[in-house]
Design goal:
Keywords: Cytoplasm, Gluconeogenesis, Glycolysis, Isomerase. This protein has 11 helices and 8 strands. By secondary structure, the protein is of the alpha/beta class. An 8-stranded parallel barrel has the order 1-2-3-4-5-6-7-8, surrounded by 6 helices. The two termini are 14 Å apart. It binds 3-hydroxypyruvic acid.
Length: 250
């Protein structure tokens, strides 16, 4: 049985006070989530320390949305994986399409970040996904394969055991468009086959989340697909009732 995970990616939203209230709302409803479904919230850096305190012993895990590719030093504005881990966060989102697109994050940089995050006991939630024009040119499988081979396939199997993958078609992020459940399943099965070519049967154990306008109204159908193990949730994770409703959609 693979893990079932619902992770909220808050992106650059909420003040610390709003974040505290949102976590309190999530915690008030967490008892409704079916046993075996893991919840993760990914807050801005500024919220991590109080969020870790608030989430202590709740069973809800905490993630950062990025980390540096260096241990420490003269990197103004960056936050090292060791610093993130010291907050109490246990996951870090890496490779989100917004980081790739707006901050020029390359596969090579993401491999450095992924390796360093793992070294500091942060489990990467590693995002992959194609742009609209890539899907329309029918190169979406090649694009996703390249993203996986450049980073995830460079890891050892011990490292892979700590990684969660998130397939987020870029054309479905913040657009309100969602991949159909068939499109999600097709790509998730493909991702697993790329992992299997390197890691064999271990590919069956890797949790692959779907991301991209996942909401209470569509989560059920998407999560019912055999290779979809949960969701990385954007906008809907900012409303506790919606986030919890999604977590109840398995
Ligand atoms: C979205 O659903 O918009 C996301 O980008 C989740 O990471």
């Amino acid at each position: 049985m693979r893990r079932k995970i619902v992770a909220g990616n808050w992106k650059m939203n909420t003040t610390p006070a709003e974040g505290k209230a949102l976590i309190a709302d999530v915690l008030a409803k967490v008892g409704e989530v079916p046993a075996g479904v893991e919840l993760i919230v990914s807050t801005p850096f500024t919220h991590l320390i109080p969020a870790a305190e608030q989430l202590a012993n709740s069973g809800v895990a905490l993630a950062a949305q990025n980390c540096a590719n260096h241990e420490s030093g003269a990197y103004t504005g960056e936050v090292a994986p060791a610093m993130v881990a010291a907050t109490g966060a246990t996951y870090v989102i890496l490779g989100h399409s917004e980081r790739r697109e707006y901050y020029g994050e390359t596969d090579a940089l993401l491999l450095e970040k992924t390796k360093l995050a793992l070294k500091h006991n942060l489990a990467p939630i590693f995002c992959i996904g194609e742009k609209l024009e890539e899907r329309e040119s029918n190169i979406h499988f090649d694009v996703v394969k390249t993203q996986i081979e450049a980073v995830v396939c460079q890891l050892s199997s011990e490292e892979l055991a700590k990684v969660v993958l998130a397939y987020e078609p870029v054309w479905a992020i913040g657009t309100g468009k969602t991949a159909t459940s068939a499109q999600a399943q097709e790509m998730h099965a493909f991702i697993r086959s790329v992992l299997a070519a390197k890691f064999g049967k271990q590919a069956e154990e890797v949790a692959i989340l779907y991301g991209g306008s996942c909401k209470p109204s569509n989560a059920n159908e998407i999560f019912a697909q055999p290779d979809v193990d949960g969701g990385l949730i954007g906008g809907a994770s900012l409303v506790a009732a919606d986030f919890i409703a999604i977590a109840k959609s398995f």
